[in-house]
Task: structure prediction
Amino acid sequence: MPLTRRGVSSNLTTLSNEQFAQNGKKQRKNNQLKQKIHNDGLPNQSSRNGKRRSSSPSENGPKKRAFGDITNMDSERLDYIDIDAENRLDPNLLPEYASQIFDYYKEREILFKVDPYLDNQTDITKNMRAILVDWLVEVQENFELNHETLYLAVKIVDRYLMKKDVGREVLQLVGATALFIACKFDERCPPVLDDFIFICDDAYRRTEFLAMERTILKTLNFDVGVPLSYRFLRRFAKCSKATMETLTLARYILELTLQDYDFCVNYKESHLAAATLLLAFKMKRIMEWDSTLEHYSGYKSQDILPCVKKLNALISNPNKQLATVRTKYSHRVFFEVAKIPSLDMLEL
Result:
C-alpha cells in the first residue's frame, strides 16, 4: 500500500508517542539515580563493599567556600601568603599573570647584567658617571618623569658604555639621548626633542641627538625592555604590605645606588631591590624578612645581608658634591626619609 501524506503523518505521530514514552522512562531512571547519588554519595570502593561513604568535612576535604571568598584559599597548604589572591576578581591588575611576569623578569635580568666597563673606557671615570647620573635625576624631577624612566635611562647608558668607548665631551649627549629613548618607551606623554636640546643648554644640535639615538638603539639591538630594580622593589613592597613611608625610604636608598658604579656592576636588579627593602625595614625597625618575601623575591635574608651592609655604608657617607637625590628625598612629599639616620654596623 503506497504511503500517502496522511499515512506518513499518522506513522510519525505513532513514532513520536512511542519515543516520548521511552524518553519519559529514561528521565525517571535518571531522576532515581540522581536521588540515590544525593542520598548515598558517589559509588566507590567502600560502597561496593557494603559500607556507606561518610560525608563529614574532615574526611572529604575542606569545607566549600562561598563564591568570592578566595583571599586565603591556599593558606592551609602554603607557608607564604598569596599576595595576588585578593585581586583575583579585578581583571585590571592581572593577578593570574603577576607571578609569571616577575619570574620572566628574573630570567631576563641575567641577560642585561652590566659588566665592568670603565677599564675599557679611555676618558671616563667613576666620578664622571656619577655626575651624569646626578644630572639625570635632576632632569627627571624637572620634567616630572616616571621613576622607571630614570632607571631605564641609566641602564641604557651603562649598556652602551659597555660596548662603546665614549669621550667626555659627548658623555652628556649619551645620557640625554638615553633619557630621550627611555621617555619614548615608558612615558605616556614624553617630552619633545626640543626640550632635551634646551635642557642641555644648546650644547648639541638636533642632528647630533638623532644620530646618537640611532647609534644607541643599533648598539643595543633595539632591546630596551630591561628588568628594573625599581619594579622589583614595588613588587617586594607589595608582598610585605609595606607602608608608603617605608617604600619611599627604600626608593631613596635604591636611587642612591644609581650613582654608584660598583653597585650597578656587582649586583642584579632583584638583589638590589631586596637589599634596599630589608635595610629600610631595619632602619624603621618594623618587620623582618619572612617566608612570603623569601618566596616572591627568591632571596633569604642571609643572602642579601652583605649587600645591606654596603648600602648602609653608602647612606652613612653620602657624596656631598652630588646631593640631588638626598635633597629630593628630604622634601615633605617624600616623608623626609633622607633625614633618617643610618644604622650602626653592629645592628646589622
User: Anything to note?
Assistant: Residues 160 and 216 are 7 Å apart (CA to CA). The first helix runs from residue 5 to 40. The radius of gyration is 32 Å. Residues 1-16, 40-76 have pLDDT under 50 and may be disordered.
